[in-house]
Amino acid sequence: MQRRAVLLLDDGNVYHGKAIGKIGTAAGEICFNTGMTGYQEIYTDPSYYGQIIVNTTSHIGNYGTYKPEEESENVQIRGVVVKMFSEVASRNLADDSLQNYLEKAGIVGICGVDTRKIVKHIRQKGAMNCIISSDIEDIAEIEAKLKKVPSMEGLELSSEVTCKEPYFLGKEDAAFKVAVLDLGVKKSILTNLAERGCYCKVFPAKTSFEEMNAWNPDGFFISNGPGDPAATDYALETIKEILNQDLPLFGICMGHQLLARAMGIPTFKMHQGHRGLNHPVKNLVSGLSEITSQNHGFCVEREAVEKHEQLELTHINLNDETVEGIKLKNKKAFSVQYHPESSPGPHDSRYLFDNFIEMMKA
């Protein structure tokens, strides 16, 4: 008989279901992802570090796991909430079941709950902390543990997921050298750069501009990552130095937020964030729309961008008109809030990597 589990939200709502993954207790900020596929890519994305994911797709685990589809070396989420969970993998490529995968990674989960109801609640009430437990039955004890969990607002997490030492990816004789500031970079981002003729040197999050520039790169990439951009100010001086030297710079997600902050633009915590593979964005430069992959709970203040003399608003979200892209008018620098590598898809936005290549050519 499958063990029981409980999900408790910060506002007191309780959901009862069955245990999946490791038997234990896990807490973090609850958020939902609207992607129909790609649960393994979601769970291994460092931008999700410290969060509990609700998958809106009803069936999770049916195609198992496959090592090449990981976005980092570790599962980054704290816990997972799903409706229907399959312990059987029905894909020839699968090298493990999702149940074994989560157990090995020490991830606590719950299934058999009404995920539609939970998502509707989060949409109305906003982001909040939660706790999943399959080894504690006393709700009061679980609640006491939940009260000790810090808010995501104000948390600096990039230093928790960044590489410890610099490393290389791509061909050494490639046409371009790209210095990557690793705030929680995804493997598929580096792959997209390497496929376009870039030799990447990936640096830990707190690396100075001087150390990165000593490698003599053709361009700088500021990666995605978890936590509050306002608490990641150690990267601002690095970005400001890149801008002062007018060197090519491309930022994604956290990198986008930090580029904005380096230009004096505030960021704020969103009501529930954008997470999924189906978010519509309009490119204000081309007039075209893109279906994008997103994962962020913080955002750049639009009014401040529009008033800034040196910034151009290049992309907006068509659901809520928030900032999705900016570029500097007088520098070789641009950024987007979403994830153009879009693993596992869609691939509408990969032209942005080509734009970065063209910028390095100039």
Automatic annotation (TrEMBL):
PROSITE patterns: GATASE_TYPE_1. Keywords: Amino-acid biosynthesis, Arginine biosynthesis, ATP-binding, Glutamine amidotransferase, Ligase, Nucleotide-binding, Pyrimidine biosynthesis. Pfam families: CPSase_sm_chain, GATase. It is an enzyme of class 6 (ligase). L-glutamine binds at residues 47, 225, 227, 254, 257, 295, 297-298. GO terms for molecular function: ATP binding; carbamoyl-phosphate synthase (glutamine-hydrolyzing) activity. Its EC number is 6.3.5.5. The active site is at 253 (nucleophile), 339, 341. Small subunit of the glutamine-dependent carbamoyl phosphate synthetase (CPSase). CPSase catalyzes the formation of carbamoyl phosphate from the ammonia moiety of glutamine, carbonate, and phosphate donated by ATP, constituting the first step of 2 biosynthetic pathways, one leading to arginine and/or urea and the other to pyrimidine nucleotides. The small subunit (glutamine amidotransferase) binds and cleaves glutamine to supply the large subunit with the substrate ammonia. Belongs to the CarA family. This is Carbamoyl phosphate synthase small chain. The lineage of its organism: Bacteria, Pseudomonadati, Bacteroidota, Cytophagia, Cytophagales. The gene is carA.
